[in-house]
Design brief:
The protein is mostly helical. The protein contains 7 helices and no strands.
Length: 190
């Protein structure tokens, strides 16, 4: 029984592209791409290379390569002889858009790599002070109840100064501070 199942699955394993076919396709793609970058190669020769690749070597290739070849053929057929431009400039130690920043802490998540709409993050997470100053409500006052909540927070701190910070153990008076704080904040928003 196992032998029959193996014989039935054998043809299915041969349905994908072979390693040598994918390798040959990759080599041909890189060859055409190199011709695109060479100033001395005529646009007609570049177009012929991309047409041959798209007719013979696309099996097993990724969609981005197929789309790139289609765009290059269309551009070369339209008479656009421009070559793709590579940005080989070296940055001054900054992180590129596709490069992840170096880890700073083993247990912390990595910092974001994209810049915000109003400015880039300098320290991998906290917005720059100038970014924080340019907000839509920069001219507005504090939200309703914020002064009251700040007063509640200060009374909670004053009340809890005598509490023992030891492993979360609280005396009865410290628990009362927490209860009073909760009631105080509720009064701020009534």
């Amino acid at each position: 029984m196992a032998r029959r199942a193996w014989l039935l699955l054998l043809p299915l394993a041969a349905c994908g592209p072979s390693v040598s076919a994918v390798y040959e396709s990759n080599i041909r793609f890189e060859h055409c791409y190199r011709l695109d970058l060479d100033v001395k190669v005529a646009p007609g020769h570049r177009g012929a290379c991309w047409k041959e690749w798209s007719q013979r070597y696309t099996y097993g290739q990724t969609r981005d390569r197929l789309e790139y070849a289609r765009r290059r053929i269309a551009a070369l057929d339209a008479g656009d002889a421009s070559r793709p431009q590579l940005d080989l400039s070296v940055t001054d130690g900054g992180v590129g858009t596709t490069e992840a920043p170096a880890p700073t802490n083993l247990h912390a998540p990595p910092p974001p790599t994209l810049a915000t709409a109003t400015g880039a993050h300098r320290d991998g997470g906290a917005p720059d002070a100038s970014v924080m100053a340019i907000t839509p409500d920069a001219g507005r006052s504090d939200p309703p109840g914020s002064k009251c909540v700040a007063d509640c927070r200060q009374s909670w701190r004053d009340c809890g100064r005598d509490c023992d910070p030891d492993a979360g153990k609280k005396r009865g008076s410290c628990k009362a501070c927490d209860t009073d704080y909760g009631r105080c904040v509720q009064r701020c928003y009534k």
